[in-house]
Amino acid sequence: MKKQLFIKTFGCQMNEYDTQKIVDVIDSNESVSLVDSPETADLIILNTCSIREKAEVKVYSDLGRYRKLKENNPNIRIAVGGCVASQEGENIIKKAPYVDLVFGPQTLHRLPTLLKRREAEGTPQIDINFPEIEKFDHLPVSKFRGPSATVSIMEGCSKYCSFCVVPYTRGEEISRPLNDILKEIIELTQLGVKEIILLGQNVNAYRGLISNESICDFSMLLEYVAEIEEIQRIRFTTSHPNEMTEDLIACFKKIDKLSKQFHLPIQSGSDRVLSSMKRNYTVLEYKSIIRKLKKACPDISITSDFIIGFPNETKDEFEQTKKLMKEINFDYSFSFLYSPRPGTPAAFIEDNISKKEKERRLKEFQKINVTQGKVHTLKMIGTTQRILIDQPSKRKEGVYLGKTDNNRVVEIQGGPELLNKFVTIKITNITEKNLEGVEIK
Ligand code: SAH
Ligand code: F3S
Are 23 and 9 in contact (CB under 8 A)? Predict the structure, then answer.
């Protein structure tokens, strides 16, 4: 009988990508079927996230539930991967001795070997090394999971923002060679993929080898990907303000396939806070990038990440962040309550702001975010958009759903022939949840 695999993913798109690869790696070794509840699984995998405390706490509470399952059936295997695994290592086994495997984001390709070793030796196995880019050389061919696919182009981060665990859990920035990325994308197009989302902690820090030993930067990579005929739209996430180049900004003028959307985390509207976060740019510098982006592509949608309640953030500094949010007129963005992470420099700063005040600020900020996002949505009525249709509506018969460049879901009437196609539409209306559109022929 096929092994039953339950896998739960926490956190970012990189983790979603890694989860797909984990499934492919295990499946290419011994065929498995995915199940959607841990109760029926032989192998339970948690692909964890440690970016904020909440995500980490959830991992241990889930593990507590799996312990009971294992008490009833000792043949169940439990594996913990991702950033909590990377950060905690053997502490996981100390806290939860019933866990069988601990593996990091860079060692997921070794899972079949680790599983075999677990059976042979009868003891928990831990492998959380950073073996450079080895992982990608050992991954099986991708599977078709819809017309839009993610491709990792670089791993890790070397920016060491004072609040962030990523450089410690995923290692320093390493870029995949250009040809490997292009090969993966071409294989995906052969399966029917039409949209590519390039992934990395800092995609615009990409510096990949070209076969003749020269280096390809991110803007060049975009041009190469755009040359692949079957790829009709290119997205990427996430970028860092300090890795912006004129060439990258010019891509929004030159490459029509590029989604007119840019996610550029700013974190705060105060220069003092930015400096304490070690972001290495000022608000003015950030605004100048946005000005250039809007000049190159006037209808570009800009989104960002914000941390609210960084240690000692004053009321005035919070006001500056609010002001910036409105001034740049960001589309739907992400905002998080600052979460002290063990081992990061910011965790050592003595903080004089209460949790209650921070939560109040976050709530106020998120309200502005939603209001602003809604205004952007309203403005879309009457505009022409391209959408990639990827599923039928579950609630309405004869209706299909597709996503615009700025990630709005649009409902369009039609039949199954629309599925997996790009369609140019005009937005006609807003429904309770989505937008409605009609095809322009
Ligand atoms: N370069 C990556 C950053 C990953 S973390 C990217 O942009 O996707 C994603 C976001 O989580 C960051 O931009 C930041 O806003 C938030 N974040 C990171 N560490 C945090 C912490 N300790 N507390 C609260 N939010 C944090
Ligand atoms: Fe984290 Fe800063 Fe890198 S937020 S991922 S250290 S750019």
Answer: no
